[in-house]
């Protein structure tokens, strides 16, 4: 049943996903073809595009996390969904899988789009194949980070929405209070979990690119805490959906 | 024989509002029950609790030998009074989507009924009239072979033709026999020939629970007349 619900969620959201990609693609093309690029500008443009895509992906993940069940509730379709032989495990997992698939595609397309200026650099012969490889690797790491953060944010906000549906706070003010308290505890919880993984390294890699040394840090502590937070938040979402959510 | 549906002291509160106040009912297999009562009397809440989409504040529920769950929802067809279908989906896609959840869903029958009702399968649900959306919901229920059919206000807010068509679909479906059905409605007169038993709800309480035939003999009146006597209004 999960894949049916996943497919339904994918179909429901493909327009917003395409819109997101369209905005980034249009900006990338504009930035890439608007003028002749020097070698450092190629990298800068590529990073700007990846960063811009990342920012939009983060906003998008918050919006999706917030709206996934709220939209169903507002349109009465939550009643339909709950009358089907499904449960929280299937509904919550399907929503996550749909977003995961969207983000994987988004990441791949963002990776390709961020290479627009790189392609121009190759065409202008200001970039060697070795430099292309190094730049691509760096972009891959950045985009992977963006995808992971987006997935985590989606789950965090999805749980908030499920909590909201179960508690049903009255009035906008109570929503705001609940949101602030929730975010505060989420941040504290994440920091606590991160401290459990202190034995894991924060590795900094030095990458030589265009004869400059670029530093790339991979925070394994944050990564482990993120995975654990995701698992806990998904489990809580399923549990609360099954026990407390009603129309 | 144990009842198909049994509830005892069912109580539901929304904030300060009591939607159901200690309702106890026992419904046998194959019985066709009409839930009647004014708006806000607790009929919809009762059906939603049976489906499992609303949790009772307290009380005992047994539906097909278990609490409302994912497992016994497979044997229950529920038609909501609300517009619950995805409006962006095409009619045919929606039926296929529902078919994916039930082994007993007869997709061929569903398409035949859609065609017979004059609903375009390629149309989006949002493009259908209210009456046709209501018919589509009923089609999705009667295209299955559920043990229990729960219909919540299937005739409300629709034109007379749609009402008549839905009535025929429901009647044909129930005359196949062996199915337990609970129909919540204000439209008592149209269902008098179908209903075996009526339960009148008022302010979350059951105020009358009788077999239709016995009721007619006892009061020498139609169910509709008794309804108006209890709840007031134009005869």
What's the layout of helices and strands?
The complex is a heterodimer of chains A (247) and B (235).
Chain A: H1 2-33, H2 39-74, H3 77-83, H4 88-113, H5 116-123, H6 129-167, H7 172-196, E1 202-209, E2 212-219, H8 220-243
Antiparallel strand pairs in A: 1-2
Helix pairs in contact in A: 1-2, 1-4, 2-3, 2-4, 2-5, 2-6, 4-6, 4-8, 6-8, 7-8
Chain B: E1 5-14, E2 17-27, E3 32-36, H1 43-51, E4 58-63, H2 70-73, E5 76-79, H3 91-99, H4 107-116, H5 130-142, E6 148-152, H6 160-175, E7 180-184, H7 188-191, E8 197-202, E9 205-211, H8 212-219, H9 223-231
Parallel strand pairs in B: 3-7, 3-8, 5-6, 6-7
Antiparallel strand pairs in B: 1-2, 1-4, 8-9
Helix pairs in contact in B: 5-6
List keywords for this structure.
heterodimer; A: mainly alpha; two-stranded antiparallel ribbon; globular; B: alpha/beta; Rossmann fold; three-stranded antiparallel sheet; 9 strands; 35% helix
Strand content of chain B: 25-35%
Distance between the termini of chain B: 39 Å
Biggest beta sheet summary of chain B: 6 strands, mixed
Spell the H/E element sequence of chain B.
EEEHEHEHHHEHEHEEHH
Description:
- The complex is a heterodimer of chains A (247) and B (235).
- Chain A is mostly helical and 247 residues long.
- Chain A has one domain (2-194, 222-243).
- In chain A, 80% of the residues lie in helices and 6% in strands.
- Chain A has eight helices and two strands.
- Chain A has helices spanning 2-33, 39-74, 77-83, 88-113, 116-123, 129-167, 172-196, 220-243; strands at residues 202-209, 212-219.
- Chain A has a two-stranded antiparallel sheet with strand order 1-2.
- In chain A, a hairpin with a 2-residue loop joins strand 1 and strand 2 (212-219).
- In chain A, helix 1 packs antiparallel against helix 2 and helix 2 runs antiparallel to helix 4.
- Chain A starts with a helix and ends with a helix.
- The mean pLDDT of chain A is 89.
- With 235 residues, chain B is an alpha/beta fold.
- Chain B has a domain at 5-85 and 149-231: Rossmann fold, CATH 3.40.50.300.
- In chain B, the strands form two sheets. A six-stranded mixed beta sheet of chain B has the order 5-6-7-3-8-9, sandwiched between helices.
- In chain B, helix 6 links the parallel strand 6 and strand 7 (180-184).
- Chain B is globular.
- The N and C termini of chain B lie far apart (39 Å).
- The model of chain B has no long low-confidence stretch (mean pLDDT 89).
């Amino acid at each position: 049943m999960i894949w049916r619900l996943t497919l339904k969620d994918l179909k429901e959201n493909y327009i917003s996903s395409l819109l997101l990609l369209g905005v980034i693609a249009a900006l990338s093309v504009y930035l890439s073809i608007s003028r002749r690029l020097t070698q450092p500008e190629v990298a800068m443009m590529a990073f700007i595009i990846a960063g811009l895509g990342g920012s939009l992906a983060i906003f998008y993940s918050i919006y999706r996390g917030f709206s996934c069940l709220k939209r169903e509730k507002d349109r009465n379709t939550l009643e339909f969904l709950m009358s089907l032989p499904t449960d929280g495990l299937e509904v919550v997992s399907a929503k996550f899988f749909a977003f995961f698939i969207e983000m994987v595609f988004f990441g791949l397309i963002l990776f390709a789009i961020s290479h627009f200026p790189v392609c121009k650099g190759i065409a202008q012969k200001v970039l060697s194949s070795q430099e292309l490889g190094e730049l691509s690797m760096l972009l891959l790491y950045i985009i992977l980070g963006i995808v992971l953060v987006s997935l985590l944010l989606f789950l965090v906000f999805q749980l908030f929405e499920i909590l909201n549906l179960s508690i049903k706070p009255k009035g906008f003010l109570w929503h705001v209070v609940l949101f602030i308290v929730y975010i505060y505890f989420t941040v504290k919880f994440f920091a606590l979990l991160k401290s459990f993984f202190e034995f894991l390294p924060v590795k900094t890699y030095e990458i030589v690119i265009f004869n400059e040394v670029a530093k790339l840090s991979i925070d394994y502590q944050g990564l482990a805490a993120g995975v654990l937070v995701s698992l806990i938040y998904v489990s809580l979402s399923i549990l609360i959906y099954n026990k407390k959510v009603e129309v | 024989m144990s009842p198909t549906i049994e509830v005892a002291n069912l109580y539901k509160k929304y904030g300060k509002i009591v939607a159901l106040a200690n309702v106890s009912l026992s419904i046998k297999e194959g019985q066709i029950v009409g839930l009647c009562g004014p708006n806000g009397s607790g009929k919809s809440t009762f059906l939603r609790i049976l489906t499992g989409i609303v949790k009772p504040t307290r009380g005992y529920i047994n539906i097909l030998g278990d609490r409302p769950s994912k497992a016994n929802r497979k044997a229950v067809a529920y038609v909501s009074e609300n517009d619950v279908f995805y409006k962006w989906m095409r009619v045919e896609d929606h039926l296929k989507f529902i078919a994916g959840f039930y082994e007993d869903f007869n997709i061929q029958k569903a398409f035949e009924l859609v065609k017979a009702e004059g609903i375009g399968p390629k149309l989006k649900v949002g493009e259908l009239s209210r009456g046709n959306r209501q018919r589509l919901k009923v089609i999705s229920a009667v295209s299955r072979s559920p043990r229990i059919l729960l219909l919540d206000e299937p005739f409300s807010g629709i034109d007379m033709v749609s009402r008549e068509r839905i009535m025929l679909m429901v009647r044909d479906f129930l005359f196949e026999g062996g199915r337990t059905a609970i129909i919540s409605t204000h439209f008592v007169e149209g269902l008098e020939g179908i209903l075996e038993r009526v339960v009148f709800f008022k302010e979350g309480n059951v105020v009358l629970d009788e077999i239709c035939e016995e009721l007619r003999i006892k009061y020498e009146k139609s169910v509709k007349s008794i309804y108006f006597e209890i709840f007031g209004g134009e005869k």
